[in-house]
Amino acid sequence: MKTFLNILALAAILSLPLIFQIYKVSGDSMSPAYPAGTVVLVERLTPHLFAPQKGTVLVFNNPHKQGQYEADIKRVSGLPNETVEGMHLGTVDYFVMGDNRAVSQDSRSFGAVQPTDFIGRVVWPMR
């Protein structure tokens, strides 16, 4: 029994990098909630198993940034099949926006984000 528990504990420890990842916020698009320099813990499983709801803060690969993928952090503002600011979302489109709307480059400028772009959801700000 002790060997089984040790194996289970080791498996849990080794799987942590697959489930959690740490990112550092750059820029002020998510201020004041997540100002530049804030370190956040991102949980990687939930957004791929369950649809994110409005208000969820996601880290995602932004394929709209100069032809290369770059991690970005934004809050979900529009869900699939909704209309946001005169833009009709498709069946898998998520409209994301930064909290600091005045400086945020978000779905208003680069369009909707797809679930295939999701890295994970922010579960803990570590300031």
Beta-strand residue fraction: 25-35%
Poorly predicted tracts of residues: none
CATH architecture descriptor text: Ribbon
> What share of residues is helical?
10-25%
CATH superfamily: Umud Fragment, subunit A
Count of β-strands:
8
CATH classification class = Mainly Beta
Shape: globular
List the total number of helices: 3
The residue-averaged pLDDT reads: 89
Tally of separate domains: 1
* Radius of gyration computed on alpha carbons: 17 Å
The SS-based structural class is alpha+beta
> Quick one: biggest sheet?
6 strands, antiparallel
What letter string, H or E per element, gives the SSE order?
HEEHEEEEEHE
* Strand order within the widest beta sheet: 1-2-8-3-4-7
CATH topology assignment: Umud Fragment, subunit A
Termini separation comes to 40 Å
Give a quick summary of the entry:
With 127 residues, the chain is α+β, with helices and mostly antiparallel strands.
Supply database-style keywords.
about 130 residues, Umud Fragment, subunit A, 6-stranded antiparallel β-sheet, two-stranded antiparallel ribbon, 3 helices, about 20% helix
Structural notes for this entry:
This protein has 127 residues and is α+β, with helices and mostly antiparallel strands. It has one domain: Umud Fragment, subunit A (Ribbon), CATH 2.10.109. The chain contains 3 helices and 8 strands; from the N terminus they run H-E-E-H-E-E-E-E-E-H-E. The strands form 2 sheets. It has a 6-stranded antiparallel β-sheet. The radius of gyration is 17 Å and the shape is globular. The model has no long low-confidence stretch (mean pLDDT 89).
